[in-house]
Amino acid sequence: MPDSLPLFDWPEMLPGWVWLVGAGPGDPGLLTLHGLNALRQADTIVHDALIDARLLDWVAPGAERIAMGKRGGVASPTQAEISARLVGLARAGRRVLRLKGGDPFVFGRGGEEAQALARAGVPFRIVPGISAGIGGLAHAGIPVTHASVNQAVTFVTGHDTEGLAPRLDWGAIARGSPVIVIYMGMRNLAEIAGRLIAAGRDPAEPVAIVASATMPGERVLETTLGTCAAEAEAAGIAAPAIVCVGQAVKLRQALDWQRLVAGRPLRDTDPLGTGEA
Fold first, then answer.
1. Is 48 one of the annotated active-site residues of the chain?
2. Full domain range(s) for residue 65
3. How far apart are alpha carbons 17 and 87 in whole angstroms?
């Protein structure tokens, strides 16, 4: 680790090991120190498509970089191929860093990759990361929990392994979760919104779509459940994006700190009308 970092008993990456590391929601500054430690030690980095390329500037000199990201609508390696590559590299004695966007265990297929390593007898380490469904929304000024809004939040994926909207109990989710955070939901957003409305959610309920969260090109669309799919299409907002459904979206009017950085005032310090500090 660099001398400028605090003194700490940093773990050593040994030959034949695979570290599954969460790169965070996008901004390289949101990588953890353990993640940076891994980048400095690995001699092979197998990375996703959505990571910020600037992270690879921190790798050890001469380290091998292998892009194995999966993107919808683009020819990509299968999950089995990725897992097999990790096993093969480890068995060849490489120090392998599997760098994944967000957190490897939150809709990131990290659990499947770690299980494949376990079955192959390959030692591994898990380094958590900041998930986009929490950190990306926070960066946009949207808290996934707030005492005046919700005591529960549900995280769902917007598609299954075949690209279809997942076969979830949308009625239970609609009734039981004041705030719903949807990963990878842009392709099926109209269908998902329709299912939530059919299950009883108000078409006028606030929705925020955060595209390229935490990155310089971040875009935030504040809309409603009934119009979100059409408005996202009209605005040209596409994946990668996080969708948040619920009254928590209104709090962006008071918590959009990026307005303050830009020298602009907040829109409303009490958007929920609670009168609370």
1. yes
2. 18-130
3. 9
